[in-house]
Amino acid sequence: MDIEQRVGENGRVPFRSNRFFCVGSKWYFTTREGFDSGPFASRERAEIGLRRFLNVVRLLPEDQKLH
């Protein structure tokens, strides 16, 4: 996945650890809030899951977003 600047960030993109991890043969992603999601059959499926999650979060009213 591409590394993007987050809202409110300026300058260089700070270091971020990998959001994806594998347990056995199943893949998961984690959010900065500590939420783990999965299992997914492959890393590619986990990446799709993360994109879907982020799209849903973007649709939330500002007062309901995770901080």
Topology:
Layout: E1 20-23, E2 26-30, E3 36-40, H1 43-59
Antiparallel strand pairs: 1-2, 2-3
Strand order, main sheet: write it out.
Answer: 1-2-3
Q: Spans with pLDDT under 50 lasting ≥5 residues?
A: none
How do the SSEs run, as a string of H and E? EEEH
Approximately how much beta-strand content do the residues carry? Answer: 15-25%
Q: Number of helix segments?
A: 1
- Helix/strand-derived class? alpha+beta
Shape: globular
Give me the Rg, rounded. Answer: 13 Å
Quick one: biggest sheet? 3 strands, antiparallel
Helix content: 25-40%
Mean pLDDT: 81
User: What's the end-to-end separation, in Å?
Assistant: 22 Å
Extended strand count = 3
Written account of the structure:
The structure is a single chain. The protein has 67 residues and is α+β, with helices and mostly antiparallel strands. It has a domain at 20-62. The protein is built from one helix and three strands, in the order βββα. The protein has one helix at residues 43-59; strands spanning 20-23, 26-30, 36-40. Strands 1-2-3 form a three-stranded antiparallel sheet, with helices on one face. A hairpin with a 5-residue loop joins strand 2 (26-30) and strand 3 (36-40). The radius of gyration is 13 Å and the shape is globular.
